[in-house]
Amino acid sequence: MSTWTTADIPDQSGRTAVITGANTGLGFETAKALADKGARVVLAVRDTVKGRQAAARIGGDVTVQELDLTSLASIRAASEELHTRFDSLDLLINNAGVMTTPKATTKDGFELQFGTNHLGHFALTGLLLDRLLDVDGARIVTVSSNGHKMGGSIHFDDLQWERRYNRMGAYTQSKLANLLFTYELQRRLAPRGKTAALAAHPGTSTTELMRNLPKFVERGFSLVSPLMSQSAADGALPTLRAATDPGALGGQYYGPSGIAEFKGNPVVVASSDQSYDLDLQRRLWQVSEELTKVVFPVG
Q: Which CDD domains match (predicted)?
């Protein structure tokens, strides 16, 4: 198996990429790699001070856009500003996320993990899609997690976990939703033939995302981390390959090639059987449009 690295990223000059959660971790490494290849990069972040600090570290044509994925008002405001700044976009990388947080809600009353990881990115993608449609080679890459295989299905009877909250269950539901969304989006984009939707997961990467793990899990992870984890830079490679590899196809899911997909070379991997369930994809799409009040310009 040939190794794929950032050296394989084609020249990105003239291309514009919007990356959520790009001031740290996977998003930062993704932004840096694209900027190094000549892309115009927008760091879409909640904390603009940290965003500007990250932009300064990256260098190149990198700017900051305020975006709070826990607020539909902020998402709409960010979309309006990006519409003013750019006539078209080439890459939208839905990278930001939260993991195993204590029970909390977004500003719109959604369970925090489902609201941030799925509904926030669903709304942002729908509002920006007109800037990506009919752009040759445009891609929307949504970062999921191999953890989506660990939980049950989408809890349509209690999407917001109001009856009995389970922080890992809520996380895995949100990551399954990322994949269901990607596959349904790709099916809707396919007839137009220009813009593609793909997904990726970073394996087990050492990032701030782990900060909300229960203490006993965190201690156990620290013991095995050298064997089963990789750096944020390596964890960003599946996203970067999905975003830039000329051979990547809409509907593909990229992740590490190693044992249990913990780490390794970025390759096409399979997601869970239920992530490919067409009825589940369509039902989640409908519910997501109803909750966010964002209707996509593709049907």
A: retinol-DH_like_SDR_c_like
Exactly one of 171, 183, 253, 254 is catalytic; name it: 171
Tokens 């899990």: give the residue.
217
Residue 159: name the closest of 170, 149, 175 by CA. Answer: 170
Task: Please give the C-alpha separations between residue 292 and each of 18, 104, 126, in angstroms, as whole numbers.
Answer: 21, 18, 10
Give the pair of three-digit tokens for residue 159. 């999407």
* Spatial distance between the Cα atoms of 64 and 51, rounded to a whole number of angstroms: 6
- Residue 5: Cβ within 10 Å count: 14
Delineate the domains of the chain, giving CATH numbers in brackets.
10-292 (3.40.50.720)
Extract the tokens encoding 205.
Answer: 């990467």
Q: What is the pTM of this model?
A: 0.93
Instruction: Fill in the amino acid letter for 239.
Output: T
Segment-wise mean pLDDT, segments of 10 residues, the chain, 299 residues = 92 98 98 98 98 98 98 98 98 98 98 98 98 96 95 91 95 97 98 96 75 50 61 96 98 96 96 97 98 95
- Alpha-helical (H) ranges within the chain are 25-36, 48-58, 72-85, 112-113, 121-132, 167-189, 215-228, 232-235, 237-244, 278-292
Secondary structure tally for the chain: helices H, strands E: 10, 8
Cβ–Cβ under 8 Å, residues 265 and 236: no
171 catalytic? Reply is: yes
